[in-house]
Write a structure and sequence with these properties.
InterPro entries: RutC-like_sf, YjgF/YER057c/UK114. This is Enamine deaminase RidA, house cleaning of reactive enamine intermediates, YjgF/YER057c/UK114 family. The chain is α+β, with helices and mostly antiparallel strands.
Length: about 130
Amino acid sequence: MEKRIINPWEWQDALSYVQAVEVKDVQATLYVAGQAAVLPDGTSSDADMRTQLGIAIHNLETVISQAGYDAANIVRLTIYSTSSEEFVNNCFDLFKDFVAKHNMKQAVTLMQVVGLYETLNVELEATVVK
């Protein structure tokens, strides 16, 4: 697999994402459903957004690993949040740490939504290649 990063500007570097990722010679693609702060017993967390993001990241890493993929090869990540302002102000450092941990270079969209399932307030949806 070959990845090429397209960044016409530099400002996005501080935000831990890229403008576009071109992927060639892919063996397989994994489309991961939205991963949120759902606990192992299937109950939804009612914790604050920062805590929920940590659980959602863990769940995303678990699904990707279980499928035999590597989080470093996430090429597309959509973040659904019930408050973009809260995400940026209280959770963005956690997101940046996740990206740095895996040396990811992914296209990202942050979307504020009216609501998520039950008590959830953040969800991560990813496309991963190998």
